[in-house]
Amino acid sequence: KPSDYFTVVPSIRVENQDQDGFTDFIETDVGGAPGRISTQTALHNTRDRGFTDVSEGLEMRYTGVTNWAFYARGEWLQGEGDLKEPETEAQTGLVARDTDSERFTQKYTAGANWYPHRRVNLGGQYYFKSRENDYDHRLDSTPNTPASGNRYPAFLREQNFDTHDVNLRVTLRPHSTVTFVSRYDYQRSTIDTRAD
């Protein structure tokens, strides 16, 4: 807290998670007309997933103007993970996927809150958020041809998301036990995808 009116809050978080699971089930496929013959397939699926994320943040708040609070935040995340999905089908044998992934996310926020009366406050905020996902499929036993019926998830190589958001809020407290909040958001997002 460099001054009575100015606050800086840095943060860091490290998260590591490992998950595994398995499933045994019978899959039923119904054929096309006119016979509509159904076939059943015994499947065994296992899934191992792990990831490590490192997140950093920096927030600044300024309250040196009467009845106003200004703030700005920056948040960044770097992560990497892996996903292994072997599936054994009685008719077709082994279907296997092994994917490494990397992601980078950044978000920048700026806003202000105005308190013209003890029972009324107004707020405005803008943020920009960007996320980049990169996938490296070290093993993919499924063909990625247009005729293949099983291309996902080892089909995407890259996905990028950009989002701009502006929002306005009005909060009314006519009574100590009653609060009304109205919010308007305008958001535009762009998604870029590169497939195999």
Annotate the secondary structure layout:
Blueprint: E1 6-30, E2 38-62, E3 68-84, E4 87-89, E5 93-95, E6 97-117, E7 120-140, E8 156-175, E9 178-195
Antiparallel strand pairs: 1-2, 2-3, 2-4, 3-6, 4-5, 6-7, 7-8, 8-9
The radius of gyration computed from the alpha-carbon positions, rounded to a whole number of angstroms, is: 25 Å
Mean pLDDT over the full residue set: 88
Q: Can you write the helix and strand succession as a string?
A: EEEEEEEEE
* Measured distance between first and last alpha carbons: 50 Å
- By secondary-structure content and strand pairing, the structural class works out as mainly beta
Number of discrete helical segments:
0
Ranges with pLDDT <50 over ≥5 residues? none
Strand content: over 45%
Shape: elongated
Task: Give the number of DSSP strands.
Answer: 9
Fraction of residues in helices?
A: under 10%
Largest sheet: 9 strands, antiparallel
Walk me through this protein's architecture.
0% of the residues lie in helices and 78% in strands. It has no helices and 9 strands. It has strands at residues 6-30, 38-62, 68-84, 87-89, 93-95, 97-117, 120-140, 156-175, 178-195. Strands 1, 2, 3, 4, 5, 6, 7, 8 and 9 form a 9-stranded antiparallel beta sheet that branches. The chain starts with 5 loop residues before the first strand and ends with a strand. The mean pLDDT is 88.
